[in-house]
């Protein structure tokens, strides 16, 4: 096992456990889009923020031109733009944008990571890939000594979290319900749809509702 998160991340960025994702994380950098010609990260993307914090935000995976390009989770894509601007409104960050690893973004009391650390085709990791990546997530969660709340973004991330608890002998029967929460061993798990461009553009995720949900989490953490 790893000594600490830093040691885990050194190991993580060299991980090649999932052949499909190892190939894809490089191939997406060759797509002709507005970032064509940029030097992509194209490796597993570590979590970011305050690992000693009370709050964990759990996304699905790095975005092709987001984390996979910039090397930082929820950075440089539309989901990041939405998420971080909302977090800023509620006081979880020092600024409302997440552009690059050099932008000075600070999360307060909050750590952000994804259940799968490499970008998957069509944002759909296979169950085997989720299982392969689970030990990293497990280490990240187990070493958050002050953890009190988790915000799970989307059903797939919730499935991984259930896998995490199952390995600890806790069988969660609850299903993902947007806007709700469950309490597990002193940790409140909040669930919300992922703020992907599709969910935001179709109105499935609404800015004001998302901000209200973050306020609810903040109130819980301040108790
Ligand atoms: S998804 Fe996780 S387990 Fe698979 S190659 Fe990437 S870092 Fe390794």
- Portion in helices: 25-40%
**Subunit organisation of the chains:** single chain
Strand order in the sheet with the most strands: 1-3-2-4-6-5
The overall strand count is 6
Mean pLDDT, all residues: 97
Number of domains: 1
Q: What is the CATH top level name?
A: Alpha Beta
Number of helices: 8
Order of helices and strands: HHEEHHEHEHEEHH
How would you characterize the overall build of this protein?
It contains eight helices and six strands. The protein is globular. With 223 residues, it is of the alpha/beta class. The chain has one domain: Uracil-DNA Glycosylase, subunit E (3-Layer(aba) Sandwich). Strand 5 and strand 6 form a beta hairpin. Helix 4 crosses helix 8. The termini are far apart. The mean pLDDT is 97. It has a six-stranded mixed sheet with strand order 1-3-2-4-6-5, sandwiched between helices. The chain binds iron/sulfur cluster. The site of iron/sulfur cluster has 14 residues, from helix 2 and helix 5.
């Amino acid at each position: 096992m790893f000594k600490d998160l830093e040691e885990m991340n050194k190991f993580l960025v060299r991980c090649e456990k999932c052949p499909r994702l190892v190939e894809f994380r490089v191939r997406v950098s060759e797509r002709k889009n507005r970032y064509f010609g940029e030097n992509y990260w194209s490796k597993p993307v570590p979590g970011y923020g305050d690992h000693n914090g009370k709050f964990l935000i759990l996304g699905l995976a790095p975005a092709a031109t987001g984390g996979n390009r910039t090397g930082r989770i929820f950075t440089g894509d539309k989901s990041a733009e939405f998420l971080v601007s909302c977090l800023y409104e509620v006081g979880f960050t020092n600024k409302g944008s997440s552009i690059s690893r050099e932008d000075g973004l600070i999360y307060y009391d909050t750590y952000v990571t994804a259940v799968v650390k490499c970008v998957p085709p069509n944002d759909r990791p296979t169950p085997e890939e989720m299982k392969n990546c689970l030990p990293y997530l497990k280490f990240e969660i187990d070493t958050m000594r002050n953890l009190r709340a988790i915000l799970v973004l989307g059903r797939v991330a919730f499935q991984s979290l259930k896998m995490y608890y199952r390995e600890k002998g806790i069988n969660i029967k609850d299903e993902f319900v947007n806007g709700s929460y469950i309490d597990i061993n002193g940790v409140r798990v909040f669930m919300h749809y992922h703020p992907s461009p599709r969910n935001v553009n179709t109105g499935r995720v609404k800015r004001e509702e998302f901000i209200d949900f973050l306020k609810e989490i903040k109130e819980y953490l301040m108790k």
